[in-house]
Write a structure and sequence with these properties.
globular, binds iron/sulfur cluster, two-stranded antiparallel ribbon, alpha+beta, Alpha-Beta Plaits, two-stranded antiparallel sheet
């Protein structure tokens, strides 16, 4: 329904060792979100949810830190921060 969504290219950088490693996590600023659902649709782990503007967030238990959500957000309302 949504066509070939560009999921593959962004994984290569984190796949160097052949396994996923979380070194960063997305921070949902919830300031300029327009509820476009792009982050929800692109997340390879399906761990993002949200209903209205500025309610989008992810479940860090499942997030792999790929950065796709931050990359695709048209409002730059998601930033990747270093895992502490
Ligand atoms: S960083 Fe990747 S896995 Fe984590 S919420 Fe964003 S798209 Fe999903
Ligand atoms: S991609 Fe950005 S603007 Fe769109 S729903 Fe997600 S956080 Fe909101």
């Amino acid at each position: 329904m949504f066509g070939p969504i560009f999921i593959k290219p962004l994984t290569s950088r984190n796949n160097k060792t052949g396994s996923w490693r979380i070194t960063q996590r997305p921070k949902f600023l919830q300031k300029n979100c327009i509820a476009c659902k792009m982050c929800f649709l692109i997340c390879p782990e399906g761990c993002i949810e949200g209903e209205e503007k500025n309610t989008y967030h992810c479940d860090y238990d499942y997030c792999k830190g790929c950065g796709n959500c931050a990359e695709v957000c048209p409002k730059q309302d998601i930033v990747m921060v270093k895992e502490s």
